[in-house]
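## retry 2 of 3
previous attempt timed out at serialization; input unchanged, resubmitting
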Amino acid sequence: MLSLAPTPSLETFLATIRAEFAFLISDYDFEERPPEPAPYVNPFSLRFVRDDLEIVVEGLGYGQMATTTIRDRPGRKLRPMMLHPDFVPYTNPIPRCVGQLNQISQDAQWLREYGRALLAGDLAVLGAALARYETAVDAYESALAERRRLGVAIQEAVAAFRLGQWALVVELLEPHEAAISPRMARKLATARQHTATSA
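## retry succeeded, writing output
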């Protein structure tokens, strides 16, 4: 059973954000601001604003999660985790701490450690992190699409093998030869023998 972290009070939540992100004000000239007006304002939220960047820390999930969003003036957004040099979405995600207060601390630590250049005004860091993220997402989605194509090819090749449609088996499996199992490789070899014999 999933164990939930204790839900912090609003006072504790906001005090934790102020303590953990105090370096934004003391070292990087940010100002604390209340949440922007909206139809629904999340009281579990604080903004740190400078003329070029805005950092919003919010509580989500009924006291179980926190998220930090870094946004520049054009509206590009990222999370502190995306600044971590080892972060690769989907394939190698960095573990998140459990509980809102721990996640606030973790985000502040990542921002302090990996976001120094960005906080010092180098907005190219934001662009580079987003480009790295998008490249990784594209690679993941491409690999996922290839796995789907392989699965379809295997199903169709098995059906064709049962019907003795040897040329079709070869046509379906050859493009994926490096990725197929030994069992499917034997089916491909058998189909190649039959096509060579009938040629």
